[in-house]
Amino acid sequence: MSSPPAPIAPGGTIGILGGGQLARMLSIAAARLGLRAHVFCQTPDQTVAEVAGSATVADFEDEAALAAFAEAVDVVTFETENIPVASAEFLAARVPVRPSAHCLAVAQDRLTEKTFLREAGIVTADFAAVDSPADLEAALREIGLPAVLKTRRFGYDGKGQFLIREPGQTGDAWKAVNGAPSILEAFVPFECELSVIAARGLDGGIACFDAVRNEHENHILSKTIAPAGLPDLLYGQAQAMARRIAERLDYAGVLGVEMFLVPGAEPSLYVNEIAPRVHNSGHWTIDACAISQFEQHVRTICGWPLGAPVRHSDAVMTNLIGDQVAGWQDLGRQPGLAVHIYGKEEIRPGRKMGHVTQLFPLGSLDEDAPATTARTRSLKLPPEKIGSRP
Ligand code: AMP
After folding, report:
1. Selection from 15, 66, 72 nearest residue 39 by Cα
2. pLDDT tens-digit profile of 251-276?
3. Do 32 and 137 belong together in one domain?
4. Which of 97, 116, 147 represents a domain boundary (last residue)?
């Protein structure tokens, strides 16, 4: 293996495609290391501009803006997988793009992603490509019911998905995906959802945080419990899967790997999807680790040594969705609760407005009946008033 490129020293600039809270937290982490952030976002209202040193507002397809951005930065990364691969390739011809345009291409299409995972020897739900109602009928015969129809691209937080329980629902399912190129997946009867945040450096070194347990409400991540409360063997298996994925992709940066834990005499792990970026289920690392997922990402894309993925506390991270953020004063009064607010002006239903992290003594969430302990101890927020406006 050739020697890794020279690291980007303090004073250098990382370019971030996308302007949401992930870019904001990456910019903050970069600043802590003496690095500058230059964000490239498509709309001017992105709150990341408050914390990044510079911002470009242009379409991701605007080649003149991309070329100028490439000139202004030392490395490019992204906070969302919904970046045109052609734009990442255009940038990569001018400046290092980490993770690569290839990783982006694999992760932004569920069919390519699941095919890659299977070829890498990773267990996934059975799946089939669906491009027409006839394909859907054929895929259902192959995969059986229940099954989940998902658009191949641009799906997030359960959008563009339909759970088919009965044969009569195929028309509704096809409507739900708007007739877009899709994938049919066997329904996985999981006990819980887990994720692993892994990082791979430019020298090929890999560091993984412990697997965490994720709970969703209305298809949006609500809580992450760190650690997940698993037998040691499963922690090891979850990390080994994330490692294998990172290696096979020749990955650079932080990677989120979402998994299902399927119960049985021998519980097994299925990978649901990979996120080629920092991930919501890694936000707890800001408060519970010396080196967060955001700093780890900045370190890896800049060629710095990997930080140790060590937790000094157990943690429960709770997202503040929509008008839950209005409770910031009460949350702020709770000693030891780390409050993070993303500075978004408009509260919209289902919008991630901030998060809070509660810390617990190391090992306390993994004792006895871990999931129950974590749940009973974890913060209760009033439910989001769906549909409410500020
Ligand atoms: P995704 O967009 O693939 O992350 O799916 C959103 C959510 O739908 C997941 O977090 C699961 O709760 C559920 N889900 C997705 N795929 C499946 C599946 N094949 N079997 C069971 N549940 C699923």
Report:
1. 15
2. 999 999 999 999 998 899 999 999 99
3. no
4. 97
